[in-house]
Structure formats: structure tokens, C-alpha cells
């Protein structure tokens, strides 16, 4: 009679833990995991952050990737690294990885490292600003190489109208209004509208739109989300149409949106799903080649926001747009965004 080895599966699972703990048993690798809590960095950027040769950093990343602690994300010809998006709640190995993440996230980053991260974000922001400064006159043409404005503006507007009919909303912030094409929709639905953009050229175009459309309840502000946070304003709705793939740290936008929203407020975005069209970086000023839906959901959850309705729009040129909403259903401190560097 053949006996059943009921312990074999568990033994196999335990053996799978060895490479995980071996790969994470290094202070530098733990710091790398901490840095990648919300951000996605390339090999060269990580080498700059930790003052080491690219070959040495590549070795560490290879070991961590093989153990399942990291996953590569291709952005055109460049490879970036992030924490894995899909971790099984049942598999012992994935539980161990999740526990490692939760543990290292309790350790604050050194101030010197935080400064280096901010410097990289500033470089990315300058790259995006420089593009829009050079190509502001062709903004609409450049954007429509990927998607015509109406293809994402109409379903986003429809979702907002639906929510406005259900909520007692009065104020809205649009991050990155560009030429102001979406401001007439918001002006019609809300008492107070704020448009926030870090490009003077884009704000000039948005100002002309407001004058031509007689949008008397719209205030335009030059700056970033930090600018509005400093003013102490709060909003019922925050909108970001095709903006996230232009910002240095998309995950931080979710933190800032949560801090800027009133309780019961909503953050609605439209943006590209992940794609491999590298030409979009040069021709459209994109910093990121779209996002996995799970990536946005994870960033939102980390900011205390709950995912709501979602819509996916397939385009003839192969791109796909996602329209998503994220709700602030619990009272949060306005300084929640400081957790980005904790």
C-alpha cells in the first residue's frame, strides 16, 4: 500500500522561501525595495541614487527579480523596475514577499536619499515641461497622434455628470487642463472650478478658452499639486485627463489627490493602458508608456482611496484608454501625503 506524503506541498513551499530571504538579506537591496515602494526607476537612476556602478546595480536587480521581489517594466528601449503588481494571497512565497515589503516600509529613508529621489523627479518634470514649451503650438495635433480629445473626454464627462446628479458637489480641480478643452464641461457642472498646470504656455491657451467660452467661475493656477496643498483648498472632485503619463511620479498624484479631496470626494482619471509605442515619448512628451490597471488601483489603495467604476476604450491604432474613479470614503488627515517618504 502506497502512503500519501501530505507534507510534500508544504515542504516545496518552504523551499521556495530560501531564494526570497537570500535575495533580501542585504541592506542595499532592502533600501532598493524601500525606494520602489511607489516609484518606478531605471537601472541608471538607481545607480545614481546609491552611488554605484551600473553593472553592480544590474547584478542586484537581477538577483531580486529572479527571487520575485522585483519585476521589470519596459518603457520603450529602457527597462525600469518596480515591485510586483500581482502577489497571491495564498502562496507562501508571495506572503513572504508581501511581509518583507510591509516591514521595510516602516523604516524611514535617509534624508540624503530623499533629496536624490526628488532631484530625479525634478529632472523628469523639466523634461516634460521642456517638451510642452517647445510644442505648445502643436499640442492638440501631438496628443491626437494617440487619441482624439473626444474619445476620452466624452466618456469622462458622462461619468462626471452621472456622479454630480447623485452628489452635492460644488468644487472641482482639474490637474493639467492643457488648452482648457474640458473646462467648459466642469464650469457647467460646478460652482467653483480650478485648473492647475505647470506650463505657462498651456495656461495661456486655457485662459483664452475661458475668455472665449465666458467661463467666469474658473480660476487657473500655475504650479503643481504642492501649490494647491499649500493654499489649504479642498475639492469635491479632482480630474486628470491624460495627465499621469506626463508626471514624474504618478503614484504621488494619488496621495496628493487624497489630501486635496473632501470626505466623500472622487478622483476621476482617464489615461493610457500600458503599451509599447516608444515613439510617444519623443513625439508626445510622454514620460511613461501607459499603466496597468492594477498599478493605478494599488497606488489608489496606498493613498486610502477605493476603486469605483472603470471603463476601457479600445482605439483603432492599438492604444487603449482607461477611465477610472477612486473614492475617498473615510476621513483622512491632510498631511497624508507625507507618507510618500516614510
Automatic annotation (TrEMBL):
Keywords from the UniProt entry: Methyltransferase, Transferase
Coiled coil location: none
InterPro entries: ArsR-like_HTH, HTH_ArsR_DNA-bd_dom, SAM-dependent_MTases_sf, WH-like_DNA-bd_sf, WH_DNA-bd_sf
Keyword match Metal-binding: no
SMART domains: HTH_ARSR (SM00418)
EC number: 2.1.1.-
Residues in the signal sequence: none
Domain HTH arsR-type: 9-104
One MF term in the entry's GO annotations: methyltransferase activity
NCBIfam families: HTH_metalloreg
Protein name (Swiss-Prot/TrEMBL): Putative methyltransferase YcgJ
Organism field: Marinobacter litoralis
Lineage: Bacteria, Pseudomonadati, Pseudomonadota, Gammaproteobacteria, Pseudomonadales
Amino acid at each position: 500500500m502506497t502512503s500519501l506524503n501530505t507534507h510534500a506541498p508544504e515542504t516545496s513551499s518552504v523551499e521556495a522561501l530560501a531564494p526570497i530571504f537570500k535575495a533580501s538579506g542585504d541592506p542595499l537591496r532592502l533600501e532598493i525595495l524601500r525606494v520602489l515602494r511607489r516609484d518606478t526607476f531605471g537601472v541608471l537612476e538607481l545607480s545614481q541614487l546609491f552611488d554605484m556602478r551600473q553593472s553592480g546595480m544590474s547584478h542586484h536587480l537581477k538577483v531580486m527579480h529572479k527571487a520575485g521581489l522585483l519585476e521589470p517594466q519596459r518603457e520603450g528601449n529602457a527597462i525600469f523596475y518596480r515591485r510586483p503588481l500581482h502577489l497571491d494571497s495564498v502562496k507562501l512565497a508571495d506572503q513572504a514577499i508581501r511581509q518583507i515589503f510591509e516591514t521595510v516600509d516602516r523604516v524611514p529613508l535617509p534624508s540624503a536619499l530623499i533629496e536624490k529621489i526628488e532631484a530625479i523627479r525634478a529632472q523628469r518634470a523639466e523634461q516634460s515641461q521642456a517638451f510642452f514649451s517647445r510644442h505648445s503650438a502643436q499640442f492638440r495635433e501631438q496628443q491626437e497622434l494617440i487619441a482624439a480629445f473626444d474619445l476620452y473626454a466624452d466618456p469622462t464627462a458622462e461619468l462626471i455628470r452621472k456622479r454630480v446628479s447623485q452628489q452635492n458637489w460644488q468644487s472641482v480641480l482639474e490637474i493639467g487642463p492643457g488648452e482648457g478643452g474640458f473646462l467648459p464641461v466642469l464650469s457647467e457642472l460646478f460652482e467653483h472650478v480650478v485648473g492647475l498646470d505647470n506650463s505657462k504656455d498651456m495656461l495661456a491657451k486655457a485662459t483664452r478658452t475661458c475668455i472665449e467660452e465666458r467661463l467666469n467661475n474658473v480660476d487657473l493656477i500655475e504650479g503643481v499639486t504642492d501649490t494647491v496643498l499649500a493654499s489649504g483648498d479642498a475639492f469635491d472632485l479632482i480630474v486628470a485627463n491624460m495627465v499621469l503619463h506626463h508626471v514624474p511620479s504618478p503614484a504621488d498624484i494619488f496621495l496628493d489627490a487624497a489630501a486635496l479631496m473632501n470626505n466623500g470626494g472622487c478622483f476621476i482619471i482617464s489615461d493610457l493602458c500600458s503599451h509599447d509605442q516608444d515613439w510617444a515619448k519623443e513625439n508626445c512628451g510622454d514620460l511613461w508608456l501607459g499603466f496597468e490597471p492594477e498599478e493605478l488601483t494599488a497606488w489608489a489603495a496606498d493613498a486610502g482611496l477605493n476603486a469605483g467604476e472603470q471603463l476601457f476604450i479600445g482605439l483603432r491604432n492599438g492604444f487603449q484608454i482607461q477611465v477610472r474613479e477612486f473614492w475617498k470614503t473615510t476621513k483622512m488627515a491632510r498631511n497624508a501625503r507625507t507618507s510618500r517618504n516614510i
